[in-house]
Amino acid sequence: MALPQSYTLPVAYGMIGPQLIQAGAFAYDVFAQVYAEAGRPLSEAQQTILRVGSEEPIVFDHANAYFLLNLLWALGLTNNNRILREGALIANSGGQVDRFASTGGWSLAAKAFSQLYSSAALVVLSEAQQARVEEAAAAIYRPCCNNPTSFPDCNHGMAMLGLLQLLAAQGVDTDTLFETAKLVNHFWYPSQSQELALYYQAQRGQDFAAIPAREAVSAERFSSDGFDQVHNWLAVN
Questions:
Q1: Distance of CA 181 to the CA centre of its chain
Q2: Is this model's pTM higher than 0.85 or not?
Q3: What are phi and psi of 60, to 5 degrees?
């Protein structure tokens, strides 16, 4: 079954890379070292994205999904947004918001976590744009846990939150937020997305492109419990 090999987002990188460095989310050399040590050194294009910015559209594929995961994780963690200031992370933190994998687990910061968290106005949203982000974040799940993006307690959740804000700020509508999340999840969770595609093919005769985006990222299909049901059904059918 053929799944997408790449996906071009309807937004550009802009100055997010340099702005994150300036905000203290990471130092360029430290960020680059992570990829060098993993045997995946930054490409010239990725170096440009971080150092000077880029007006090229963001393109997801299997080769750069890891780069984008960390870049967007940094964005979600650093950008000042009320989901971080007033949402589920704060409500479930017990007064220690740095205890989550997505917060205290960000080890590349160039400043103290307390100074970095939700600290910089990198992506400024109107009330209408914020409402779109909040609607989507409450309904987009990931198969590593049962929490929606509005509770971004892991790196993928925080990265998705950063991505939703970046998209909404550039005028992307709610339906496209869900469609983008469906496709980005494919690159961050390729094996689970493959199984989801097989499930829909068997159940409804639909290929991956035809799966309704809101279903593909829902708690019923792509949370940990939801995906377990998909996986278990495939195991016996």
A1: 8
A2: yes
A3: -90, 135
